[in-house]
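Just scan my protein:

——
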Amino acid sequence: MPSSKASADTALPLTLELEDFKGDFSFDALFGGLVDELLPDFKEEESDSAEGGDSVPNGNLRSVLGAGTGGVPLFPAVDELLALFKQSCKELVDLRSQIDTRLQNVKQEVIAQDTKHQRTLGEIEKGVDGLFDSFARLDTRISSVGQTAAKIGDHLQSAESQREMASQTIELIKYLMEFNSTPGDLMELSPLFSDDGRVAEAASIAQKLRSFAEEDMGRQGVSSAVGAANASRGLEVAVANLQEYCNELENRLLARFDAASQRRELSTMSECAKILSQFNRGTSAMQHYVASRPMFIDVEVMNEDIQVVLGDQGLQSSTTQIARGLSTLYKGMADTVRKEAATITAVFPSPNDVMSILVQRVLEQRVTAILDKLLVKPSLVNLHPSEEDGLLLYLRILAVTYDKTEELAKELQAVGCGDLDVEGLTESLFTAHKDEYAEYEQASLKQLYQIKVEELRAEALQQQPEMTGTISRAKAAALTISPQQQIAVTVVTEFVRWNEEAISRCTLLSSQPFTLAANVRLVFTCLLDQVSQYLTEGLERARESLNEAAAMRDRFVIGTSVSRRVAAAAATQAEAAAAAGETSFKAFMIAVQRCANSIAILQQYFSNTISRLLLPVEGAHAAACEEMGTAISNVEGAAHKGLLQCIDTVMSEVERLLSTEQKTTDYKSPDDGVAPDHRPTNSCTRVVAYLSRVLEVAFTALEGLNKQSFLTELGNRLHKGLLNHWQKFAFSPSGGLRLKRDITEYGEFVRSFNAPSIDEKFELLGILANVFIVAPESLASLFEGTPSIRKDAMRFIQLRDDYKTAKIASMLNSIMAES
């Protein structure tokens, strides 16, 4: 559309409109639209130039435009274009002004609309707030109306309940009047009470009538003192008739229940059980059902129970057979109860109560009948060793039956038994036996010990060797202990095995830690007594052998003024006594070794088995340790006495060998000027050989402190005996050298004792022997070097053969005066 403001001087139309700038605006398109009509020729030339490849170089446009032939412009439309461009600029400015004006108007309208919107929005918010207030008032009103309606509903429901109760009460009163008509007359009752199809309803009404009548009688009984006894008398007739009717109805239902039970009609049984549950909570029905089970009324079943457990041997059956029989029997009982549980669950409304009655009946009737047959208590009065099987068999059967019955109780508990305390009921079955269990266990262990002792004595008498000669049979028995009389570790092991079996029964039968600890202590005390007595008596028998050997030595001691034949006979008997002493010594050492091994077994048993059972109870473990210490101390006391006798036996033989083998010329040879003999004397050789031979068993049998104490005491006694022996002889210098050789031999032997105090004493003896070797004038220096031997040296110096001739006495006096 041409602008209205176009210049009159130009004929060029303008087409600039606002629509040209809307949408996808292109400046090139706008510009082309303005100049295309004015430059058609130029466009053709331009296209031709482009096809010919001629072009105006950059920077030469002005010269081209300005050049021409005869002054004619090369681009004559330039003025028209300039005018067009100027006019376009004006129109563009006008268009911008129009747009600005429109924008301003639109802005004013937007502001006005926004103000109107804000005002409308505020009014809407006020309306919404008012609407919320209205809803809140409405909600409050609705709540109030709802509460009122609920109260009205409660009143209506209460009124309906009262109406129904009143109606039922009227019906009950009508039925009550029927029962209150004539005592014992039930023929005039409503058809309800005789219709088998309405038994459940009749039972419910009858129970309500009984409850009402009995309650009313109770109230009238309280107020009868104020003159209200007449009403009471009327209801007594109703109560009696109702009781009679309920009993009849209950019996009728029970009969129907039994008939259905025989036919296995579970639905009918369930219906009857539900109705019977209204009579004393169904107790009669539950008890009737349980009592009618074949396992409780069939005599053959009970006889089979005994046959399964005991078999054909009766009470002579082994515990293994009894255990196997009980397992079979109890498994059958559990299976039967499990089958009954399925029926009970399907029939009774309270199956847990029925299961409780059933399980209780199983334990109290069937299990008790078996226990009464198996557990027959033997008498504890005047027990005889031949009755071994009585006590021990009773205890073993008690343990087996208790264990198997506990397993049955757990299985029944798993099947289900309601609120019944199966564990407590099972315990009560054994209460009479468990109360006296500890006494029977002690009596059994004592009886086993007596039987074992008698058995060992009988075997000893049978195998006692026949002895002839000067030693009688009794003396030979004392000197030569048979294997049955000797201490045997296997016997102590058998004691421990008995005790271990008894402890296992204690653990099984003692449920509480305190009771268990008390019973374990009693049983373990029996073992301590048995081991202590057995070992002590064994040591005493070995000591008797040592005593007899000592008596034989004393009997054949003779004087010096006897004939050679008598002396030879006495020497032969002394040799026999010495052999008997050596045999007794070895036997006692073996006994001590076996005692030590037995005590070790006892202590190991206490540590592994007894301790853990006593530790939970305060003081029990310490008391048992003290008792065990006392028992071991008794054995050690007997062993100590015997070891001292062993030392006496050894030293007696050493003294005999020294007295018989030691010659006067051993330490004072007539040919003293000859080269000295560096061999030990014959007596020394015999003594060392004897000690080596006899102590070989001691080194093996004794251990630890016992060995150290024994060898130390023997070393002291040997040292003292040698000193006393040597004081009987006179010593020349060469005799002193030989004495020193004997002392060296003794010292090397006692070094095997591993007793430093004994080694020191024999070393001092070697030094002491120098008093016979050194010259008289060197004695003083000997004392100075070893002052500890002064006392013994003063005695030994007097044994020098030159003691008087060399006037050593006066020399010693001067030495003592100077010191």
Summary: Residues 1-12, 50-70, 222-232, 466-479 have pLDDT under 50 and may be disordered. The chain has five domains: 81-162, 181-217+231-286, 293-444, 482-634, 662-817.
